[in-house]
Amino acid sequence: MSEFDVIIVGGGHAGIEAALAAAKRGVRTVLITSNLDLMGQMSCNPAIGGIAKGNIVREVDALGGAMGFLADGAGIQFRMLNKSKGIAVWGNRAQADKKLYRSLCRMLLENTGNLSLYQGMVKSVTTGNGKVSGVCLESGETFKAGAIVLCMGTFLNGIGHIGSNSFPCGRSGEPPSLGLSESVQDLGIKAGRLKTGTPARIDGRTVDYSKMRAQEGDCEPFPFSYSTQHAPENKAVCWVMKTAGETHCIILDNLQKSALYGGKITGIGPRYCPSIEDKLVKFGERDGHTLFLEPEGLDTHEMYLNGFSTSLPFDIQVAMVKSLAGLEYATIIRPAYAIEYDYFLPTQLFATLESRIVPGLFMAGQINGTSGYEEAACQGLVAGLNAAEKTRGGEPLILGRDTSYTGVLIDDLITRGTEEPYRMFTSRAEYRLLLRQDNADERLMPIAARRGLIEQDLLESRKRVWEKKRKLREKLADSRIEPSHWNGGKTGIDLKRKTGALELLRRPQVHILDILSCAGIEEHEKEVLVGVEADVKYEGFVEKQKAEIGRMKRMEETRIPEKIDYNHVEGLLAESRAKLKQIRPVTLGQASRIAGVTPADISVLIVHLTRQHNASFHVKP
């Protein structure tokens, strides 16, 4: 028997961040995974970031996590998405060498203090005195700990599907985790079933790239990590194509052979990352769907056919691929498949990601109903840190919706739950003008520093950047632009009077570089310019959001008694009463965000709390 403070089960992106966070907090941590060689495996697209997801990666990095640093080290192409729109919705994305990413990941984990690695398959969770006590492995070993973080991804009772063929797997070529899901459900935790999928991989030597459009990386890429000292390099090209009529006919003619439409799959799939069958059925009016052919690494010819996920039989997949321009003679080296797996309903969790039912049991990643490496990573970091705090008697970390996309994601999961794989979008965050990727360090690094998750030297270096931003802002505030220096420029705006630099910068078509030369201000580093411009352009909106946050803060600080009997709260709508009883919100703020709970219900609840529990609270208009 081995004894630790925290056990991490699973070596995917959630498990990696959970293990690092717990170990950095100074507790004895072990990461148990079925295959040590596949820690950090990118089982779907070898890419990190994207719209909203890139913000999460920056947040993970600001909190001392590894994903951003690993993506910078293994990245082979970098692109800032949404660049034509406002900075608040930019999304950094890196195509990665998946083998190098795994290698860097293992190197980092093996050189982290307080962290042990162990290869094995966990079969069950053990409990004692009403809380977790450890885990048992299929091979008979037992591990004891005061806190456990489950990060099993798609492995829980995983079943793969290719046409009518179904086979047990966690990922294609790897065995599923059997018994663990039942062990957790035996503790009183409810489970559901979800589905996801991945497209075929293509031998790049059999592709005619002349029939596709090349997609290059950015000329001046942004790194993800604040620790990255070098400028990221673009070393690979991605390729763009579209489906057409022949492809559509092949798919629709064989639709019932799909595991999804043939009735083999019962789990609910991701609405925002559908299979190609789903796209044609739900968006049949379109004459084509965009696909991306993306490299899986620098030392392999394997290519990922992004946007072409399917569960159709292999012979149909071959015909589908060969119907695409440029892939007429292409060879598939890994077939596409769908996978079903168990997840645990996330409304059974606290905001710390600890189970409401079993103390000391934490959950992170796809077993909470999310999709995506980034969504898994941020959950893993929060769960791992809070598991460590649980064992050392420390203060838990709870991130609010106003602090981070991570806070939004966790609050959505525990308050609203999900019946399909949850994916983060900028539209999910009501305070997204505050939660930009350019200010993740200012929002979250002080929190990480207090917890010992980042080095003091890194914090000091970021403080110097913040000071540069402050000084540049002051210079702009003191500068006024003469019409003679400005008029006739590329912005198309002519001034009739001397105008303040900040006033001018607030205009959508004006950029900070347009201002600097006219104001006689020297240029600064790119990240300083981007940050200051974002702060200035969004200032008015941000002030309104901060006022709203202030009004909501009182709601968030008013706790609802754990044992409140909603049957005795007079005036609640029946639907609201049922939802409140099911989710059992911790605060009035959380209660107000439950789907189906109305403002009138919240007012009724406030009156009840005031009368029954001597709470002094009122809602400001």
Task: Please characterize this protein's 3D structure.
This protein folds into 4 domains: 2-195 and 340-450, FAD/NAD(P)-binding domain; 201-337, Elongation Factor Tu (Ef-tu), domain 3; 466-542, Arc Repressor Mutant, subunit A; 558-613, GidA associated domain, C-terminal subdomain (DNA polymerase, domain 1). The chain contains 20 helices and 24 strands. β9 and β10 (142-144) form a beta hairpin. By secondary structure, it is α+β, with helices and mostly antiparallel strands.
The major β-sheet equals:
6 strands, antiparallel
What structural class do the secondary elements suggest? alpha+beta
Radius of gyration using CA atoms only: 26 Å
- Report the total helices: 20
Estimate the strand proportion: 15-25%
**Relative helix content:** 25-40%
CATH names the topology of the largest domain as: FAD/NAD(P)-binding domain
| DSSP summary, beta strand count | 24
Q: Low-confidence spans: pLDDT under 50, at least 5 residues?
A: 615-621
Order of strands in the sheet with the most strands?
A: 16-17-18-19-15-20
CATH architecture assignment of the largest domain: 3-Layer(bba) Sandwich
Q: How widely separated are the two ends?
A: 59 Å
